[in-house]
């Protein structure tokens, strides 16, 4: 591993602190057994009225719904809140679940600031070959609609 970014002092200072700790931007936790779980990226957090909402947490809950095949959550710009969670949903074949039903499904499981405020249905969630959600493409799709 390099000790710094090549010709980029600012990026080095943002990533490696004065004590030499590398800040990857990953968010995670330790369980009781000492195992590490990475759950999201700091850059992907949705900033809702001063709260931080992890899209991966909401996606994990959404895909547990029996009528949902896949889901992705991105920030939607909002004048009052800053950003609100918006879900892109791929329904299972034959499903007719509504956005309101999904919002209620999530609202029963999370704190009020984590609730999904908007829902859009699409045919496929864009993903990289690694399976990572391409949120950038979803944000571009949203921008073209605004």
UniProtKB/TrEMBL annotation:
GO terms for molecular function: CoA-ligase activity. It comes from the Eukaryota. Residues 57-132 form the AMP-binding enzyme C-terminal domain. The keyword Ligase applies. Keywords: Ligase. Pfam families: AMP-binding_C. Belongs to the ATP-dependent AMP-binding enzyme family. This is AMP-dependent synthetase/ligase. It comes from Cynara cardunculus var. scolymus (Globe artichoke).
């Amino acid at each position: 591993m390099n000790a710094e970014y090549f010709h980029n002092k600012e990026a080095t200072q943002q990533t490696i602190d004065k004590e030499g700790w590398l800040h990857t931007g990953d968010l995670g936790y330790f369980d009781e057994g000492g195992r590490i779980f990475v759950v999201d990226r700091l850059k992907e957090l949705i900033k809702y009225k001063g709260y931080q909402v992890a899209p991966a947490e909401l996606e994990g809950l959404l895909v547990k719904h029996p009528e949902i095949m896949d889901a992705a959550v991105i920030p939607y710009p909002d004048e009052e809140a800053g950003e609100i969670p918006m879900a892109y949903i791929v329904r299972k074949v034959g499903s007719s679940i509504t956005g309101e039903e999904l919002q209620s499904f999530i609202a029963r499981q999370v704190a009020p600031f984590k609730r999904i405020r908007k829902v859009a249905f699409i045919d496929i969630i864009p993903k990289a070959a690694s399976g990572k959600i391409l949120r950038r493409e979803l944000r571009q799709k949203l921008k073209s609609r605004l």
